[in-house]
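Sanity check

After download, print the first record. It should look like this:
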Amino acid sequence: MAIAYSMSVADRVLHVKASGKDESVEDVQRYGMAIIDMAVAHGIERALCDETALEYTLGTFSSYEAAKFIAEAAPKICRVAIVCSPRDLQNGAFWETIAVNRGLNVRVTSDLDQAREWVAEGLNQSNHAMDGDNS
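Expected structure tokens:
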């Protein structure tokens, strides 16, 4: 099953819940672009992606290609936390390294609370124009 996901915006953070399996680089790229497009459309600079129900199956080279593509497509001002299952943390850490080396401000962890805290860091100081926007 390909990547299935839902997205919502709350408290100036894009919340993403993903499940299924990353079957190809193109599948991951489509998923990543959907997140980027939603964030840009809503003026959101932070995302919390819960991928604990998403199985990472891409090999090393495909993970590299997917991370490189998304890092180059994403606005550099974004802050993205990705929460994966503990079984996928090693692959997630590799993806993070590739993306961070290309300028994406991303953290991959298996701890949802840690991810929430990291995404929220500095949120009160950033983007005051969006205060009061609960969409």
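If your output differs, re-run the checksum step. Summary of this record's structure: The chain is about 40% helix and 25% strand.
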